[in-house]
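Slack export, channel: ligand-projects

TW: morning all. Re-posting the request from yesterday since it got buried. We need the structure predicted with the small molecule present, not the apo form. The ligand is nicotinamide-adenine-dinucleotide; the SMILES is in the block with the sequence. No rush, but it would help planning for next week.
GE: picking it up
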Amino acid sequence: MSDFAESLNGKVAIVTGAGQGIGRRMAHGFAEAGAIPVIAEADAAKGRAVAAEIGGNRALFVETDVGDMASLAAMAEAVLERLGRIDVLVNNAAIFSTLEMRPFWQIPLEEWNRVLHVNATGPFLAARAVVPAMMQAKSGRIVNISSAAVPKGRPNYLHYIASKSALVGMTASMAHELGEYGSNVNAIMPGAIFTEVERKTISPEQKAAFMAGQSLKREGKPDDIVGAVLFLASDAARWVTGQCLVVDGGWVHR
Ligand SMILES: NC(=O)c1ccc[n+]([C@@H]2O[C@H](COP(=O)([O-])OP(=O)(O)OC[C@H]3O[C@@H](n4cnc5c(N)ncnc54)[C@H](O)[C@@H]3O)[C@@H](O)[C@H]2O)c1
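GE: finished. pasting the full token output, ligand included:
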């Protein structure tokens, strides 16, 4: 379908937190579709490595802390200077794989604040940094990465759930505010995705229960998310805005 296949060619797509895991695969997916991914990652070694994997001038790494407004402003400026445009922002960076699972009454306030800051304030700040360029171009796509754990509920990381829930309301409201400027804002709610990164947010028993509870009985992989992100970033989704798409192998049915 030409809308889908061709519309990303030559576009500039910022993917925050693309140094590993799902974001890394998204960066590759954009490059494979002919777009130029910007790896806006706080871990410089990992971000640089992903840009090198993609190779040549087909990707740009910019060291970026999504919790820091000045860092995001510098990133947007660098992208415009080097690539001349910003077409897509994927708000993927989050404190996730490093989280400790614990009952909410044991979450230290400092940790609660840090997770909310990076995971919810971060996407707000990143969107602020790119909207001037999108408004000027009278187009643009923002894709927020929420979680299927929001509609389903999951114990032991309430700060994370709170942060991903915030993105649901932010997505609908940002879509209303940016519509008149020709920009679409949507969210993806991934189910359990097993990446190259070990994490403490799922035990072997929970992993088995996850797969048993899904309609599709296999492990979710980063590649299973990429198609939905590319679709929402493409012209094929031009009439889709303010939506949250669950991509989870059929874990949540609503
Ligand atoms: N893996 C899953 O099962 C799953 C399920 C639902 C939603 N998600 C969401 O998908 C996204 C990617 O998940 P993942 O499994 O690849 O996570 P991950 O923890 O492996 O990767 C997160 C990336 O974000 C980066 N990052 C963290 N803080 C940052 C900051 N302040 N500035 C810039 N970069 C920062 C990290 O360095 C890392 O590269 C996250 O938003 C996560 O919440 C993941």
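GE: first-pass observations. The first helix runs from residue 2 to 7. Residues 56 and 149 are 37 Å apart (CA to CA).
TW: perfect, thank you
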